[in-house]
Specification:
The protein is α/β, with parallel strands linked by helices. It folds into three domains: about 45 residues, no CATH class; about 120 residues, Response regulator (Rossmann fold); about 130 residues, Response regulator (Rossmann fold), CATH 3.40.50.2300. The chain is about 40% helix and about 15% strand. A six-stranded parallel sheet has the order 2-1-3-4-5-11, with helices on both faces. It has a six-stranded mixed sheet with strand order 7-6-8-9-10-12, with helices on both faces.
Length: about 350
């Protein structure tokens, strides 16, 4: 249980140190990043265990004063998802204006990787914005004990969050389909671990009860073009004619899959996405989608985090719901009598 022979340190992680020291990972993080928030006895024990495991030889030491670091973290679940592009741009612009840098982490839709990367990054950061996290509420609240945290695209009790009005977006999408005569509407589900996915499905069910249509659910599938393509076989086989997708990537993949099967959009199937990514306007047919002000989300999140670092901390306003709008393009139309 010591350093590697080459002096580079073992493969010990923050979790190994926490287990041996008998404390939580967040306590280990605070022992290195905010020593004043951990008792001297506990901090010394953690440093001793970390030294024995070779942990500190592999970590970058955080500056003595967190006020001089000027680095904010932004954690996303998939950097290749265009949903994150404008969020990142909004974060970077607001951070740069205030003289901060943004450190980006990508968990690749992996809960395990997200957890590991965040705990490694914590000692280096002054504040953190987490977009569409797959971690539990308890884990996110534990992280927030170490530094200011804002959560995007999800509500977590006790934490500041900024969330698009998904309920209004789904309802407007359903109402739009109803104007075309659709009375059976399907929700194409995304990741099971996604808080947003659960909200959207519950809203579809609520809208079905209020507006008088029959709801269906297909999935879960990966929130990618490939995931949408995979869902195409199910949509076609069940002869479903109106689909609201978890996001635009899935909607685009679904439209491709339907086309490959000789079905037209919107002639045979109407498709609606969510997020209004740049590709939704250039695919053929253009994708009807629910648009959220993603750049504004990133901007607001960074400004809130920075406000928590000054002598006069901004009081949490609780969850902030950001308005959305339905962007109507060519992927939706009258219900087909065929098939």
């Amino acid at each position: 249980m010591g350093r590697a022979a080459d002096g580079s340190g073992s493969d010990a992680t923050i979790y190994d140190v926490a287990k041996v020291a008998g404390v939580s990972p967040s306590t280990v993080s605070r022992a290195f990043s905010r020593p004043g928030r951990v008792s001297a006895q506990t901090a010394e024990k953690i440093r001793k265990v970390a030294d024995e495991l070779g942990y500190r030889s592999r970590e970058i030491t955080h500056p003595t004063s967190r006020n001089t670091s000027k680095i904010l973290g932004l954690a996303v679940t998939d950097i290749t998802n265009p949903f994150n592009f404008r969020v990142i741009r909004g974060c970077q612009a607001a951070a740069s204006e205030a003289g901060f840098l943004v450190s980006l982490t990508d968990s690749q839709e992996s809960e395990k990787l997200e957890r590991e990367m965040l705990h490694r990054a914590l000692p280096l950061l002054d504040g953190l914005v987490i977009a569409s996290s797959r971690l539990s509420d308890t884990e996110l609240r534990t992280i927030a004990k170490s530094l200011p945290v804002v959560v995007l695209n999800r509500r977590v009790a006790g934490l500041q969050s900024f969330v698009p009005d998904m309920a209004a977006g789904i309802r407007r999408a359903a109402e739009h389909l109803l104007t075309f005569g659709h009375r059976n509407i399907t929700y194409l589900a995304g990741p099971e671990a996604s808080w947003a996915d659960g909200v959207r499905w519950r809203t579809v069910r609520d809208a079905a009860r209020d507006l008088g249509f029959t709801e269906h659910r297909v999935g879960p599938f990966a929130p990618t073009i490939a995931g949408g393509r995979a869902a195409g076989e199910v949509i076609a086989a069940r002869r479903l004619k109106a689909v609201i997708c978890f996001n635009d990537l899935m909607a685009i993949g679904l439209m491709r899959a339907l086309s490959d099967r000789g079905l037209s959009v919107p002639g045979d199937v109407s498709v609606i996405g969510f997020d209004n990514i740049f590709a939704s306007a250039i695919v053929a047919p253009g994708l009807t989608t629910v648009a959220a002000p993603l750049t504004m989300l990133g901007d607001a999140a960074i400004r809130y985090v920075i406000s928590q670092l000054g002598p006069s901390k901004q009081a949490s306003s609780g969850p902030v719901t950001v308005p959305v709008r339905l962007v109507v393009r060519a992927s939706t139309g009258p219900v087909s009598a065929g098939r």
